[in-house]
């Protein structure tokens, strides 16, 4: 069994811990200075601690903290070349981390769906079989070049918020039409979930799937005409570009370190 630790039990760290617990078969230590954060994840790990050196005693060490405290955490970690350090911090380059540890370094950008084992993640660096197995147990991941991590951060790291926004818009349209808030949210969320799973499993492109749903003179084509005539796709693209730009700005802060 691969010994794993997660340093930083905020939103992303706790989502990862919960997903690994649901997957089963993992020995995980959770580390955080906040006792409330540790209490919140105590049921999803083997041990909780505020001692970074205890978390360092693992085969794979995840550092899931804010970018501005990554360096402070790294300074407290004494890892060997036999260990793997996996960072989850927007904009922090692999090279920055490699200069501060003897361990193998992997940089990932996951998302909160790790909690339900539906995560989408981008990964770069020295991926071992152990890391691949850990990531696979909480969702899907793709291996990308370091230069692609900013756009990956925007697509899958920030992407859930964009989807939540669209789900809320569809939900409120349902409420305006007479559905209860609860019923509209269930229908909207499950529809997005099912549509996403169809894209993942079906060989057809998204455009081909749209055609499959749009019957001539039907309800769907009527709605799609509104979207095609709008700037909705431009707005979504601009949101992704803005998130990518911010990731690059964060990276610039580490360029001269």
Question: Could you state the CATH homologous superfamily of the largest domain?
Answer: NAD(P)-binding Rossmann-like Domain
**Chain-averaged pLDDT:** 95
Structural class: alpha/beta
User: What CATH architecture label of the largest domain applies?
Assistant: 3-Layer(aba) Sandwich
Number of DSSP E strands: 8
Helix content: 40-55%
Q: What's the main sheet like?
A: 8 strands, mixed
CATH class of the largest domain: Alpha Beta
* CATH domain topology of the largest domain: Rossmann fold
Order of helices and strands: EHEHEHEHEHEEHEHHHHHH
- List unreliable stretches of 5+ residues: none
Termini Cα gap: 36 Å
Q: What value does the Rg take, in angstroms?
A: 20 Å
Strand arrangement in the largest pleated sheet: 3-2-1-4-5-6-7-8
What is the count of helical runs? 12
Strand content: 15-25%
Shape: elongated
Integer tally of domains: 2
How would you portray this structure in words?
There is one protein chain. It contains 12 helices and 8 strands. By secondary structure, it is α/β, with parallel strands linked by helices. The chain folds into 2 domains: 3-149, NAD(P)-binding Rossmann-like Domain (Rossmann fold, 3-Layer(aba) Sandwich), CATH 3.40.50.720; 159-247, ProC C-terminal domain-like (ProC C-terminal domain-like fold, Orthogonal Bundle). The chain has an 8-stranded mixed β-sheet with strand order 3-2-1-4-5-6-7-8. The longest helix is centred in the C-terminal third of the chain and has 21 residues, at 181-201. The radius of gyration is 20 Å and the shape is elongated. It holds the Pfam family F420_oxidored. It comes from Haloferax volcanii.
């Amino acid at each position: 069994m691969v010994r794993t630790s997660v340093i930083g039990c905020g939103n992303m760290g706790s989502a990862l811990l919960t997903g690994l617990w649901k997957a089963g078969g993992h020995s995980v230590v959770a580390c955080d200075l906040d006792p409330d954060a540790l209490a919140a994840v105590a049921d999803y790990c083997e041990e909780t601690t505020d001692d970074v050196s205890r978390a360092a005693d693992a085969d794979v060490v995840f550092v899931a903290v804010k970018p501005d405290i990554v360096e402070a955490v790294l300074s407290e970690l004494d890892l060997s070349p036999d260990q793997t350090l996996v960072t989850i911090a927007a904009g922090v380059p692999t090279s920055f981390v490699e200069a501060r540890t003897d361990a193998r370094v992997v940089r990932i950008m996951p998302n909160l769906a790790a909690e339900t084992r539906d995560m989408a993640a981008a990964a770069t660096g020295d991926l071992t079989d152990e890391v691949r197995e850990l990531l696979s147990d909480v969702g899907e991941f793709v291996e990308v070049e370091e230069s692609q991590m900013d756009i990956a951060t925007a697509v899958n790291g920030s992407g859930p918020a964009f989807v939540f926004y669209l789900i809320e818009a569809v939900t409120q349209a349902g409420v305006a039409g007479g559905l209860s808030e609860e019923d509209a949210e269930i229908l909207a969320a499950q529809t997005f979930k099912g549509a996403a799973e169809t894209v993942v499993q079906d060989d057809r492109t998204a455009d081909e799937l749209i055609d499959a749903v749009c019957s001539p003179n039907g309800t769907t084509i009527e709605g799609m005409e509104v979207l095609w005539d709008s700037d909705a796709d431009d707005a979504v693209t601009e949101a992704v570009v803005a998130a990518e730009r911010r990731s690059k700005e964060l990276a610039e802060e580490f360029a001269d370190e």
